[in-house]
Amino acid sequence: MLWLFAFTLQAASVSLVYAMQHYPSGWGHYDVCKSQIYTEEGLAWDYMACQPEATDMTKYLRVTLDPPNITCGDPPETYCALENPYMCNNECDALTEELAHPPELMFDFEGRNPTTFWQSTSWKKYPKPLQVNITLSWNKTIELTDDIVLTFESGRPEQMVLEKSLDYGRTWTPYQFYATDCLDAFTMEPKTVKDLTQRTLLDIICTEDYSRGYVWKNDKTVRFEIKDRFALFAGPRLHNMASLYGQLDTTKNLRDFFTITDLRVRLLKPATGATMVDENNLSRYFYAISDIKVQGRCKCNLHANSCVFDKGKLGCECEHNTTGPDCSRCKKHYHGRAWSVGSYLPIPKGTANICDNTPFFNKHRSLPVLPVPLLPFPIFSLSFFSTARVCDNAMLRCQNGGTCHHHQRCLCSPGFTGVLCEDLRRCSGSSPPTGSAPVLAAAVVVMFYDYVI
Ligand SMILES: *[C@@H]1O[C@H](CO)[C@@H](O)[C@H](O)[C@H]1NC(C)=O
Ligand SMILES: *[C@@H]1O[C@H](CO)[C@@H](O)[C@H](O)[C@H]1NC(C)=O
Ligand SMILES: *[C@@H]1O[C@H](CO)[C@@H](O)[C@H](O)[C@H]1NC(C)=O
Ligand SMILES: *[C@@H]1O[C@H](CO)[C@@H](O)[C@H](O)[C@H]1NC(C)=O
Ligand SMILES: *[C@@H]1O[C@H](CO)[C@@H](O)[C@H](O)[C@H]1NC(C)=O
């Protein structure tokens, strides 16, 4: 009995050591969901947190314009160049392919010459506002991994809002406001992403960075800066992704901030290039966008490393016995424990949190009934219980790529052993250090325990 008690103490000291250990500077790619490993019990699966690769998400979206008839060319129209009101020979005709500017041209291949772009009707109804909503829908939760970049072929709008939805377009919240004059347009103090701190990262700001300069030759892009926001946790060149992943793991608000199902660009006021609108020549004012970049990945709750586009619909290819478009449920017959999102920690492989069909230590269940000889007194059974769940606790993670099994036993990678896969020496032939003998003995009991229950 004494060695069981010793195990309790040993495990406690082990947990302290690992809690103080720093994560390696390298970080995981999370591109593998499982691999086969050899353990003392033979071949077994080692499960890891995994996610699909980040990719160009504009290939999978549906675009909707509001009002629907806002695209130029029906009826045909000529418009002038903004920088030169005397150049009014640009034609838009929806029925002629070379002169049409449908919304799809915002998502086609860039690098064509001349550039292809979507264009709105001109501001013929001035002073009635010229407002357009461009809504991008994925019908799937996706996680943004890079800046959203809009490239304008007209002057950049004097007022616009980027909005997001996380519930398939039912509700919308702003991501960022853009204006030549934030106070005047939105009664907001102008700010830039550089003003944000870790504490204010989720603040919604109005920026004047992307509205000035109406001339073609000037910068034509409007950004929503994802990477600068990541950098608040991961450092300037995102060298410390471990820190970011740690934050994403523990802060749901932060994770949700970068997660969307839809985006909406609300164009509120076109570039005028001056304080006065030239009412005699309203063909100068319109919106034209040649490109929208959205980089991201399907949100699969760290339970899938691929996402397929099938019958016009994105869906995660769920592993770990999970299911649903986002792998957000356990498969039928795999409710051995409650579903949970995978974890990025510990770096680099994370924790898979698989769904399994072995009802074991259920959080809602009372203490398991221990074989009588193992229960000398109640306090003792409590301490045994807590150490049996050796890898259930965030501080007590399996080391060296081992994965937690049934909340209470680590499946070690080849070459590692010990309760937390921390012991290298046993495999290299030398005898275990004296201090770890009780640990090994206890591990055997834990395994035995597993079969008893
Ligand atoms: C654009 O969408 C917003 C909601 O996000 C709505 O209030 C507004 O009326 C829409 N504008 C147009 C022109 O459809
Ligand atoms: C678009 O349609 C609405 C009615 O649905 C109409 O009032 C408006 O004039 C049309 N706009 C253009 C530019 O054709
Ligand atoms: C969105 O996806 C669901 C399935 O997840 C499907 O039933 C629905 O028809 C889709 N909606 C659209 C507009 O494609
Ligand atoms: C715009 O102004 C130019 C130069 O003043 C003129 O040639 C052109 O016809 C005007 N366009 C319209 C639609 O009034
Ligand atoms: C489901 O889990 C069981 C064991 O927990 C495993 O043998 C099986 O391969 C898993 N299925 C999938 C599709 O991952």
UniProtKB/TrEMBL annotation:
Domain EGF-like positions: 387-422
Gene3D superfamilies linked to this entry: Galactose-binding domain-like (2.60.120.260), Laminin (2.10.25.10)
Cystine residue pairs: 412-421
Keyword Disulfide bond attached: yes
Organism: Periophthalmus magnuspinnatus
GO terms for biological process, alphabetical: animal organ morphogenesis; axonogenesis; tissue development
Protein name stated in the entry: Uncharacterized protein
Cleavable signal peptide: 1-19
